[in-house]
Design brief:
Distance between the termini: 28 Å
Structural class: mainly alpha
Number of helices: 9
CATH topology of the largest domain: Rna Polymerase Sigma Factor, Chain: A
Largest sheet: none
Number of domains: 2
Oligomer: single chain
CATH architecture of the largest domain: Orthogonal Bundle
Length: 183
């Protein structure tokens, strides 16, 4: 989760970028590119196109950062633009995406030993088995530390949808980690 110190640094860097400070803009880009890339990867479901999506998102982010009412909103602003860029990418590859969704709809195999203590690999495999929308919501909430409201803004969906995705994602994740059926 993002600490208050991290949020303050992000706000400072965003304010500097909004003011046209090139050094602070470079620091903001360097600090946030891995996060935006991770979100893009989760939403796209694969690494192909992530770099292009994030690069396009940065162009839009840097053009719009000066219009932010509150620089503290930068994380939701950046995640939302990246999400929109991913949605455009997905729409442009719709035929391939339909095939990918059909593959993702197949039930995930049960984990080998449900009594085994939780390890990082097991958690990563279980998260990867979730639908992309639930995977992204859980990641933004638990890893990036965004609130339900911030996730709703980032993913451009209602807060109720975020809550539903979090609830279903947690249930499926728990079932996968126990080795049960995730439906």
């Amino acid at each position: 989760m993002a600490s208050e110190k991290d949020r303050a640094l992000d706000a400072y860097l965003a304010a500097g970028a909004a003011a046209g400070d090139r050094v602070l803009t470079r620091r903001l880009v360097a600090r946030w590119t891995p996060r935006l890339s991770a979100l893009a990867w989760r939403l796209l479901g694969h690494a192909e196109g992530v770099e292009d999506v994030v690069q396009d998102a940065w162009i839009e982010i840097l053009k719009g950062v000066s219009r932010l009412r509150a620089v503290e909103a930068f994380p939701a602003f950046a995640f939302r633009i990246t999400q929109r860029r991913c949605a455009r990418r997905i729409r442009s590859m719709q035929a391939d995406r339909r095939l990918e969704q059909a593959v993702e709809a197949e039930p995930a195999p049960a984990l080998e030993d449900p009594d085994q203590s939780l390890d990082a690999g097991k958690a990563v495999r279980a998260m990867a088995a979730l639908p992309p929308d639930q995977h992204a919501a859980l990641w933004l909430h638990h890893i990036e530390g965004l609130s339900v409201r911030e996730i709703a803004l980032s993913l451009d969906v209602p807060a109720g949808t975020v809550k539903t995705r979090l609830m279903h994602g947690r249930r499926k994740l728990a079932a996968l980690l126990r080795g049960g059926d995730h439906e």
